[in-house]
Description:
Layout lengths: L4 E7 L4 H11 L6 E8 L5 H8 L4 E3 L8 H14 L4 E4 L8 H6 L4 E5 L14 H9 L4 E8 L9 E8 L6 H30 L4
Parallel strand pairs: 1-2, 1-4, 2-3, 4-5
Antiparallel strand pairs: 5-6, 6-7
Helix pairs in contact: 1-6, 5-6
Amino acid sequence: MKKVIRIVVMVSGGGSNLEAILEAQETGRLPGAEVVLVISSNADAYALERAQNHGIETAVIERKAFAGDEAFQAAILEQLFKARADVVCLAGYLKKVGPGIIRRFRGRILNIHPALLPKYGGAGMYGHYVHEAVLAAGEKESGCSIHIVDEDFDHGPILAQVKVPVLPTDSPDTLAARILEQEHALYPKALREFCEKLTVSGVQS
C-alpha cells in the first residue's frame, strides 16, 4: 500500500494559501497527500479557523511563550515529529525556521513568496513591503515563487514561478490582489508536483 505523504502547513495570518491547499486536497488535486496539521505562530490567525472548518488539527506555538528561540524551535519540531510530517509548507509564516528544523526536513520545506525571487526577498521582505518595493523600483513585472527553504530567508532552490504584469495604475493593494490570485493556483500545483516526485524517490520520515 502506497504511503500517504503527510503535510504540515505553517501559518501566521489569514491563511488564504492554506485554504487553496485544503480545497485542492478536497477536490482530488493533491492525490496521495494529506494535510494533517496546521501550526500557527499567532493565536489570533484566521488561518486557524480555516483549518478547523476543514476538520484539520491545529497547534499554536507563539515565540513569546518561550524564554529563547531554541525552545521555540524545539516545540515546533516536536509537533512536526508528533504529526509524522513528510513535507512542511510555509503559507504566510512570518517566523524564521530554525536550523534544527531545516536539517531534519532538508529539501522538504516549501515556501511561497509574493515576488519573482531572487528579487525582493530576504529579511523584512514580506506582504506589502514586497509590493511597495516592486512599485518603488518601477518594475514592469512581478509575480510569485515557490521555493525550497534553506537557512537564509527566501533563498533556496526555486520550484515554480508565475509572472504578473505591473500596471501603471497599480497600488500595493491592487498588485497584491492579482499576485495572490496566482499564488492560490500555483501553490497547490507545485505541491502536487513536489509530492509526486517525493513518492517516486521514496518518502523518508
